[in-house]
Design goal:
Helices cover 89% and strands 0% of the residues. Helix 2 runs antiparallel to helix 3 and helix 3 packs antiparallel against helix 6. The chain has one domain. It is mainly alpha-helical. It contains six helices and no strands. It starts with a helix and ends in a 5-residue tail after the last helix.
Length: 246
């Protein structure tokens, strides 16, 4: 809502209240009804603005979580080729050791579990990577759940104005003043609350966005571990079969 819209809202409210307070209706009942009608109209406007703000908030939060998910999916797909590429020199090294062991007549039976370890290494690190990424996605959905609960409380608080309007009725000689006060309060919330919602959601979106580089770190960390752990396994295999590393 821009400044002109805010100004127009308050001008409309001011004129409405002036008409209620200074007009001389034929009866007190008519004056009260006028005040109630204004309050109801302001309430309807308030809830329309609140629901619009909540819809926009939901869309922003959904987009933020989708970005985290999309990043994870993209890196998972990328990991398959990256892990295969990192395994090529390790597999080549293991093949050389096996050929050398065969030439020397070495018994490799007791050492074959190292071959299995190397074969399973990409899958193990891939599982670690996915688990790490999933943790970040869970954090993102947790942030969304928290802010949605907060927004629901705001919506309920705004919806409670209808009860407050009802409570004004029956306050002898004070009904018009009570309703006018509520109309002013609701008009203010029509401006302030959507801004508060946008600010709170903006903070949550920024928080979710901090998870994107963490998802990337899940990928780079596990990819970096593959050659290190792979060389360690190859070294243990060479030692086991009694063949010096080439």
């Amino acid at each position: 809502m821009n400044n002109m819209q805010i100004f127009a809202t308050f001008c409309t409210l001011f004129l409405a209240q002036a008409l209620i307070i200074h007009a001389k209706p034929e009866s007190k009942a008519a004056e009260i009804q006028d005040a109630a009608d204004v309050a109801e109209k302001v309430f309807v406007k308030l809830m329309a603005v609140i629901h619009k703000a909540l819809d926009e908030a939901s869309a922003s939060l959904k987009a933020a979580v989708q970005t985290v998910n999309a990043t994870a999916t993209k890196l998972e797909d990328k990991a398959h080729d990256a892990f295969d590429l990192a395994m090529k020199p390790l597999n080549a090294k293991l093949k050389e050791l096996l050929e050398e062991a065969k030439k020397l007549g070495a018994n490799t039976t007791d050492c074959e579990h190292y071959i299995d370890d190397l074969t399973n290494l990409p899958n193990n690190l891939g599982d670690n990577m996915v688990e790490c990424m999933t943790d970040q996605i869970f954090k993102a959905t947790g942030y969304v759940d928290d802010i949605l609960n907060h927004l629901h409380e705001i919506e309920q608080r705004m919806a409670n104005y209808t009860n407050k309007i009802h409570d004004c009725k029956g306050k002898i000689w004070k009904e018009v003043k009570c309703l006018a006060h509520l109309s002013a309060e609701m008009a203010k919330d029509t401006v302030d609350v959507p801004l508060k919602i946008a600010a709170d959601v903006g903070k949550t979106v920024l928080l979710i966005n901090t998870l994107i580089p963490k998802v990337g770190l899940c990928y780079t960390t596990n990819l970096a571990q593959l050659p290190t752990q792979g060389l360690d396994i190859v070294g243990k295999f060479a030692k086991c079969v009694g063949v010096p590393q080439i």
